[in-house]
Design goal:
Order of helices and strands: HEEHEEEHHE
CATH superfamily: Beta Polymerase, domain 2
Distance between the termini: 65 Å
Number of domains: 1
Radius of gyration: 16 Å
CATH architecture: 2-Layer Sandwich
CATH class: Alpha Beta
Number of helices: 4
CATH topology: Beta Polymerase, domain 2
Length: 135
């Protein structure tokens, strides 16, 4: 019973993290559900990448802000902000990985945890600015 409750809570946290990534247009967002893997270190890995150092930093800031706003949590550990090649945010039950594209390709976390159920998150619709013309 307790494991089921924990899984629901970590699933909700994972969804909040995904929302934070989507807010700053995180690329190729993936949720890996590690909860069914024996001796896994966490319930979920949430992975995405950005196209630049500044976008990786913005995604990480957005994730932290969304989680803080929704459930009042700060990451228990965070690292990688010095160069923003690979930023890690640890929320115990959910670990967030935000890469620059070339580092994501190099480390291939999705392949390392290929036995975990994977969910590729759909891209949200981003409103485009329309030019208003006067007649």
């Amino acid at each position: 019973m307790a494991k089921h409750k924990k899984s629901e809570t970590s699933g909700m946290l994972a969804d909040i993290i995904v929302k934070g990534m989507q807010e700053k247009l995180g690329i190729d967002i993936v949720k890996l559900n590690l909860s069914g893997i024996p001796n896994s270190i966490t319930d979920y890995f949430i992975i995405c990448h950005g196209s630049s150092r500044s976008q990786v930093d913005a995604i990480a800031d957005s994730v932290q802000a969304e989680v803080k706003k929704a459930v009042g949590l700060n990451p228990s550990h965070k690292e990688g902000f010095e160069n923003c090649e690979w930023v890690l945010l640890d929320y115990f039950d959910v670990v967030v990985h935000i890469f620059q594209a070339e580092y994501r390709s190099f480390y291939q976390l999705e392949k390392l945890w290929a036995d975990a159920p994977r969910e590729d998150v759909a891209i949200i619709n981003v409103p485009t600015k329309t030019k208003v013309t006067k007649k």
